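Obj: model holo form, ligand = adenosine monophosphate.
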Amino acid sequence: MRVLVIGSGAREHALCVALSSDPAVTALACAPGNAGTRAIAEPADVHAADPVAVAALASSWRADLVVVGPEVPLVAGAADAVRDAGIACFGPSEQAAQIEGSKSFAKHVMAAAGVPTARSWPVGGAAELETALDEAGPPYVVKDDGLAAGKGVVVTTDRDAAVAHGHRVLDAGGAVLVEEHLDGPEVSLFAVTDGTTVLPLLPAQDAKRRDDGDGGPNTGGMGAYAPLPWAPPGLVDDVLVTVLQPTVDEMARRGEPFSGLLYAGLALTSRGIRVVEFNARFGDPETQVVLPLLETPLAGLLHAAATGTLAGHPPLRWRDGAAVTVVVAAPGYPERPRTGDPVTGADAEGVLHAGTTVDAEGTVRSSGGRVLAVTAVGEDLAAARRRAYERVAGVRLAGAHWRTDIALAAVEGRITAC
Ligand code: AMP
Ligand code: GLY
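Output (holo structure tokens):
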């Protein structure tokens, strides 16, 4: 099977690592890719957000399967264009990707499917913003309704900051959603689906805030671990029955079947499981810890989802142990990341590349805010964590920052779910 991965982050590097170890894969390409993916997958140039260009590359490279990593190409219709070219594609249609592309669309689907989520107030203008904040009460949750790479949400008890964020989004021409605040630990649960059958993967948790102790601004994700030793027994089955299957069924009922990766961002609140958000693709950085634990060959699984044959797929097999990934970020991330700095030690085992390129002299340089996702597997979470931080010590990037407490609360037994 010739497999083409679209994207250029550490999620795509992790996908390439897993796909390259599937004996069914005879050729692997990653477009546009990064300095890390080049070592295991053919590089190819593509403007990932252009569906016509993605489909043209898939045809000329003679792909049997295209795996679209990021949300932007999906929301732009890349999966439709690839399928129209007669090539199997792992990823939802433009219509179905609205479950991530529009938070209010996702709320409508959840309401119709009876899926538990936070109450929300759509805000059309500045006057409605104050009323919505009054009704929701503190802590305030103010969201950009559209795609914002995880950075469109402000959660704060400071009403002025909540108002300011709402105005920023409105002034930029966006729509705002004010939400009820959800307490309790967060879980990311991915499911592979062909639009009918739903196969959940292992639950993971990412660290969204920039600083240790969950301080600082929201980011795309500063680290992750899986599985969750503190998760209540039966969590995955509960989420399958109350969230994932009803959502997939509702999308099919609307005539917008969702096939690909449905990512449920959940809060385990004192009042039960609530959906914080859906994403229409593998999470980043959670993919970097979920895929190393998957023993089932990945290409066969994604191909079954892309071709509507998941019902006949064998149950997923997982290795024992745990995985931890620590994101090494560029100075200034997330607000104004500095790029172009040399990166060394990044060809070591477990070092996944997020934002890197190779210059004309062959030097690896930072090219994004999240530069590396340094990953390790261990016999338990403590061992995986120790190994991941040993590996972080081996990489060099001037001014880099990373969290030192990824998976620490879980290792120390400080997380409890209701
Ligand atoms: P989102 O872009 O919707 O994924 O939100 C990003 C992050 O903001 C989430 O992972 C949560 O940590 C936080 N967040 C979003 N919505 C809520 C909410 N209703 N209550 C509490 N925290 C939230
Ligand atoms: N880890 C958050 C995301 O992928 O959206």
